[in-house]
Amino acid sequence: MRIAFYAPLKSPNHPVPSGDRLMARLLIRALELAGHTVDIASEFRSFAATPEAAAEVVACAAPELQRLRAVWSDGEKPQLWFCYHPYYKSVDPFGPALCAEFDIPHMTAEASYSAKRDQSDWAPFQAQVAAQVKDAAVNIAFTQRDRLGLERALPQATVAQLAPFIDTVLFEGAISKPQPTRLITVAMMRAGDKMESYRMLAGALAEISDKPWTLAIIGDGPMRSEVEQLFSQFEPHRIEWLGERDAAEIADALGHAGAYAWPGCGEAYGLAYLEAQAAGLPVVAQQTAGVPEVVQAGVTGYLTPDGDVAAYAAALATLLDDPSTRQAMGEAARHFVLAERSLTVAAGTLDEILRKYAGAN
Fold this sequence. Notes:
Rossmann fold, six-stranded parallel beta sheet, single chain, 43% helix, globular, alpha/beta
């Protein structure tokens, strides 16, 4: 199929790294691996922090809508519109209108619906997302939690599931040289859930300061100074600040660690967990949000109760104290991701979904 791909929250070409950008890129690669032709339809970003700003964004989208209409009229129109991650703060101002006008199907992936927004000033924008989801040929959910949420809120919608995945190429031939007491985490330094995870991690490590751990931190962002302050309570040699790194450098750093430590407050699922496991690392995270979709509790890592710092610290201590468990979980983690969550596996599943729901041949 000829597919027009659009990510209203953040274009796959956006300069700032994020999980959204990575998943958008992975979806495009999976579609191409399955034999489809994918073009990024627009770089227009529809994200708005407030309902007032959202109204302005919608108005600003008019020229881009006209441009796309002209392109499709003058050339070969796509056979499918693929919208990644529409939600009330970042609606799709193009796909539904163009698909109705040019008579082509559209689909979404990771669409989000929050019922409480129906009683707020965001209601008109959430209604746009709801209409798109209901009219879509299919909506792909990455977690069972998200699938059930869409089906309960919008029972008219057609929903399919695709498990979160990564490109495992950097990990398949890698030879790990794990340092058993070296913990590692990869995360942006920004307000909200990320900062809450950093706080929880620092608090847990303080509870096991008698253990011989070190922590490597990969990431950067607007709250770097606040994150550095959180970890200033520890001896300087314990914390290694690696800053922002590219994919190959991250894979290499993961291969030299003993366990992946990231609480994952409010984490949609967390592709970094899959990367860590592909490198052979057991994970310590919380049993919260979408994290259980990417970490097999008790098999590839430990998932502790949401918000329980003491339990999180105890799980870290277990891996530090028990090398055999750490090794067994790490081996299981690597097998899990390489066998079940690779780009190749995802491409096959995604192609099946398109064939079943979107008219792919």
